[in-house]
Amino acid sequence: MTGTGAFANYYEGPSHVSLTVQAPCAKALGSLAHIFPAPARPQITALTIALGSEEPNVAAEGAIALCKFADNDNYLHMEHSRTILEAGATDHLVQLVNFGEPYVQIHALRLLCYLSLNAADSDALGKAATLPALLTFSRSQLLTKHEDIRQLLMDAIAKLELYQLGSSHGRPNSVP
């Protein structure tokens, strides 16, 4: 996908684009998430880079946009989830869940839960210590303000625990 101006440059990474347009670019990509065919690597890579932004609003918009790729409402959510993991989002997300601003944490948490549910067998989730991050957040005061995400978090924890239990007993790395 090519284009002109800041939107096209966004694919090179947010460092090449002014802070004033990074969040709107991420928001635009998220709005179009349902029309991108899998694997949508350029779009997902740009949004994954946004997760690493030092600007909290950019990281939040990146997480919100990636949620639209990984949400069950997106027909290709399983394929997009794998692409998000391949793009290296897990380390950024664990960092944001553990240390991000509260409004960034909740969006990063939602995305991390979607990825855990859609691709629990991914090595990237284990290497980034996703389960400990989710377990720690499950005891967070911030969760009391976001009851809508509690069940999603509990489902993600259960799925990751089930996968880890199965893989530690030498069972195949697949989770129902």
Quick overview of this protein structure:
The chain is 66% helix and 0% strand. It has 176 residues and is mainly alpha-helical.
Q: Which CATH top level class fits?
A: Mainly Alpha
Tell me the number of structural domains.
1
Uncertain ranges? 1-11
> What is the total tally of β strands?
0
- Report the sheet-strand fraction: under 5%
What do we call the CATH topology? Leucine-rich Repeat Variant
Portion in helices: 55-70%
Q: End-to-end span in angstroms?
A: 35 Å
Describe this structure in words.
The chain has 176 residues and is mainly α. It has a single domain (5-168), classed as Leucine-rich Repeat Variant (Alpha Horseshoe), CATH 1.25.10.10. It contains ten helices and no strands. The protein has helices at 5-9, 19-31, 41-51, 56-70, 77-86, 89-99, 102-118, 123-127, 130-137, 147-168. Helix 2 (19-31) packs parallel to helix 4 (56-70) and helix 4 packs across helix 5 (77-86). The chain is globular and about 40 Å long. Residues 1-11 have low confidence and may be disordered.
List the helices and strands and how they pair.
Blueprint: H1 5-9, H2 19-31, H3 41-51, H4 56-70, H5 77-86, H6 89-99, H7 102-118, H8 123-127, H9 130-137, H10 147-168
What are the defining features of this structure?
mainly alpha, 176 residues, 0% strand, 10 helices, Leucine-rich Repeat Variant
